Amino acid sequence: MTITITIPVVLALIIGGLVAYLLGSIPSAVWIGKSFYGIDVREKGSKNAGATNTIRVLGLLPGIFVLCIDAFKGWFAIYLSRIFGVELIGTDYMIFYQLLIGILCVIGHALPIFAGFKGGKGVATMLGIVIGLFIKIIPLVLAVFIVVFILSHYVSLSSMSAAVSFPIFYVGRSLFMHEKIDIVQLIFAILVAIFIIWTHRKNIKRLINKEEPKFKFKKTEE
Asked: Are 25 and 99 in the same domain?
């Protein structure tokens, strides 16, 4: 399938990218905390606008709600890429556009225009993107997260372990199923692992110094 690059096509792709960023910018943890509890989660706990800190500060139910919303943002961004990038479907350009859309959504989550450009680490949003693009690998990645979490009770360590396993499982499954390894998808998987580790650099330091708090399914007293 060939594609003719016209102004309407280019505009659709650009608008799709803008929508993805704005979608990622929805600060679910901040809005839920301020609207229902009068608390800005970025001022308490780990000061991160994510599901883990929401559970730590507000409790399990709002934290799970934030997790679902943030993951949905990533999945929905990939879904929208098939609408704004309809002209690319069936071409080699589609995966590039989908990855761009996903990246812009994560950037929106980390630097949300609706919350003073101070957001979360993007783990849940990245999970939604991976679900949208690599659904067959998700059970394996989640299994790694669960096992590491049960053994350590560290969400940060579990997230990084799952992220590192992502490209490994992608290659392993492709070889096992005798499927072609898409170099673009492999690079994306590696970049996801690097991104998650980079956003957890402070957690790594705390883990090394044995100062990282273990996760508890209830809010703290602060």
From this structure: yes
Two structure tokens written together for 169: 């499982």
3-state SS of 70-116?
HHHHHHHHHHHHHHHCHHHCCCCHHHHHHHHHHHHHHHHHHCCHHHC
**Domain total in the chain:** 2
**Structural domain containing residue 86:** 1-122
Q: Are residues 47 and 116 in the same domain?
A: yes
Dihedral through CA 64, CA 69, CA 70, CA 72, nearest 10?
Answer: 120
pTM of the complete model: 0.87
* Residues 182, 112 within the same domain: no
Residue 19 domain-assigned (yes or no)? yes
Q: b vs e for 110-130, b when ≥16 Cβ sit within 10 Å of the residue's Cβ?
A: bbbeebeeebbbbbbbbbbbb
CA distance 185 to 178: 16
* 156-166 tens-digit pLDDT: 999 999 999 99
Q: At what angle do helices 138-152 and 123-133 cross, to 10 degrees?
A: 150
111-164 pLDDT per residue, tens: 999 999 999 988 899 999 999 999 999 999 999 999 999 999 999 999 999 999
Domain check: are 1 and 92 in the same one?
A: yes
